[in-house]
């Protein structure tokens, strides 16, 4: 997962690939990072402008657990008590807090992850001295529940899943997530469900794990993708009552608080942004996915058709998804993706492309040209 395998503190492959693309001596379409390229809601900008004229007190520490009004707004939308909500520095910190709580319970020392997996999950697990158990997903990207049942045991501290999924684009149905919650309850483990891509569900099947109302479930999310504001670092975690106070303490000791202006802008956007903003983003991504996969057909590639999120995994004949081959694509095709080996073993011969660029069509054409020429 990192520059030196087994050392969680070296530069992640994401940064190595982006740096390599930046140094290339040709034009490169970047499809590595999941940073939306479209405008944030107008209310985000309005909220920041208004905040700039605030009183001196508005520029001081926010309450550590988050602005009260923001926590109440999140709670109302997620149908939970606001005392269960901790506003965090993005979904990354929210996931860290949940995984740390799982380890602090002394109810196991293993974390069960899917394969493929977002690389920061095993990185955090290693940082917390947890053992990792990876379970390959089914061929369609859905959860392999039989394998999950075999993997979860009394040694399991936490089961971590992400839906809609990065990198497969799978949307896990409520019944499958409920089965994982039952497994966690039976083994005194936590189930962490990262729902950061919940607004990018193309299937209509997504249901939040909060509908399960389980004392063993922690749900995390953020506004980074939803509002196209990855630089704001405003996320949150919803903890069971018994776990939230210790999570708040760890959050305070590690971060003190989350950015006050960013929280205020997000709050205003939640109150004022119409549903059409989010639907426009989904429509944009649907169009990009269709155009990109059409070009992958022309390149003779196999690929995933995402039900959610904005990533496509592609496999090219005799061109496995190694870091060396990703560099070759940068140098010779002018397209930067992520090596499949960064996400585990199940898709290690695939390459992940993030469709967060208006040049997705250009990238697709370059890939089609490159692999068509390779076949000649």
From TrEMBL:
Any one Gene Ontology molecular-function term assigned to this protein's record: transaminase activity
Binding partners and assembly: Homodimer.
Start and end residues of each Aminotransferase class I/classII large domain: 27-361
Pfam families (alphabetical): Aminotran_1_2 (PF00155)
Keywords from the named record: Aminotransferase, Pyridoxal phosphate, Transferase
Biological process per Gene Ontology, one example term: amino acid metabolic process
The organism's taxonomic lineage, starting at the top: Archaea, Methanobacteriati, Methanobacteriota, Stenosarchaea group, Halobacteria
Family recorded in the similarity comment: Belongs to the class-I pyridoxal-phosphate-dependent aminotransferase family.
Protein name: Aspartate/methionine/tyrosine aminotransferase
Co-factor requirement: pyridoxal 5'-phosphate
Record organism: Halopelagius inordinatus
